[in-house]
């Protein structure tokens, strides 16, 4: 696989000689997708909290609980727990349960909230995910998943009938590292038999998913914050892969 040239502050130090300087980029033969926030989004915290508590929660109480979760993101103990969160299943569980338990009323159900993450029915594909994946697959584009995660995602994709489109599954916890480590992207490319220069990474995190560029891939980063089940704007991926949307 090709290596990236060494770059100074202004650009590559050596002039590329393998291809003409004005050669067009290689056609996209493979697309890698992030999971959460890209193809899927979990149900709302309001729904998850009510399910975990096993009782209705009034608006004032829910607002207090959600504010507690927001405040917890700044808690030093929670911040420490997030470090290297996705390098193992144990670290992943610890990071999330520590955050949930930072809200005293949610501490007794922290494990239940975490179990929701691994429950396929808690996740909703974005409205345009299935059509986009089907169109890419019909064109012969190889597809893979590269996700910072603490469990195997295949059951969630299978639950929604989307696993059949993918030939590579790269979970960070299985490799003891996190994006943007080039190891993850390059491993997915090898699994798909695609050169990084022919591969597009699609995600929603500029540093993590956009970091695929450091491994020689192209990257498309979606804006964060799309609601569960909404249109995600994945038709742009088809255009980047040189395909009509229909």
CATH superfamily placement of the largest domain? HAD superfamily/HAD-like
> Quick one: overall form?
globular
Structural class: alpha/beta
Q: What is the number of independent domains?
A: 2
User: In CATH, what is the class of the largest domain?
Assistant: Alpha Beta
Evaluate the radius of gyration.
Answer: 20 Å
Binned strand content: 5-15%
In short:
Keywords: Hydrolase. The chain is an alpha/beta fold.
Structure in words:
Keywords: Hydrolase. This is HAD family hydrolase. GO terms for molecular function: hydrolase activity. This protein folds into two domains: 148 residues, Rossmann fold; 79 residues. It is an alpha/beta fold and 246 residues long. The strands form three sheets. The chain has a five-stranded parallel β-sheet with strand order 7-6-3-8-9, with helices on both faces. Strands 1-2 form a two-stranded antiparallel ribbon. Helix 3 packs antiparallel against helix 4. Strand 1 and strand 2 form a beta hairpin. The chain has ten helices and nine strands.
Describe the SSE topology.
Layout: E1 7-8, E2 11-12, E3 30-33, E4 40-42, H1 45-53, H2 59-72, H3 76-82, H4 89-101, H5 110-117, E5 123-125, H6 129-138, E6 142-147, H7 154-159, E7 168-171, H8 172-175, H9 182-192, E8 199-203, E9 218-221, H10 235-240
Parallel strand pairs: 3-6, 3-8, 6-7, 8-9
Antiparallel strand pairs: 1-2, 4-5
Helix pairs in contact: 3-4, 4-5
Protein name: HAD family hydrolase
Pfam families: Hydrolase
Keywords: Hydrolase
């Amino acid at each position: 696989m090709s290596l990236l040239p060494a770059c100074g502050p202004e650009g590559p130090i050596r002039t590329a000689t393998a291809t003409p300087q004005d050669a067009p980029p290689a056609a996209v033969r493979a697309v890698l997708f992030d999971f959460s926030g890209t193809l899927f989004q979990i149900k709302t915290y309001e729904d998850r909290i009510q399910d975990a508590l096993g009782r209705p929660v009034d608006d004032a109480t829910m607002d207090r609980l959600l504010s507690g979760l927001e405040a917890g993101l700044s808690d030093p103990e929670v911040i420490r727990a997030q470090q290297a969160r996705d390098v193992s299943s144990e670290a992943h569980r610890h990071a999330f349960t520590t955050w949930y338990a930072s809200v005293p009323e949610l501490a007794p159900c922290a494990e239940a909230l975490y179990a929701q993450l691994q429950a396929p029915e808690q996740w909703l594909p974005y409205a345009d995910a299935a059509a986009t994946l089907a169109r890419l697959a019909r064109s012969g584009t190889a597809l893979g998943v590269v996700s910072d995660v603490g469990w195997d995602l295949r059951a969630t994709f299978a639950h929604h009938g989307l696993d059949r489109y993918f030939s590579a599954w790269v979970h960070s916890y299985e490799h003891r590292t996190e994006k943007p480590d080039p190891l993850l992207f390059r491993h997915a490319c090898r699994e798909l038999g695609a050169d990084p220069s022919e591969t597009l990474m699609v995600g929603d995190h500029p540093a993590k998913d956009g970091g695929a560029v450091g491994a020689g891939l192209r990257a498309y980063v979606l804006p964060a914050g799309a609601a569960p089940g909404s249109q995600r704007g994945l038709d742009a991926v088809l255009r980047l892969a040189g395909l009509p949307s229909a």
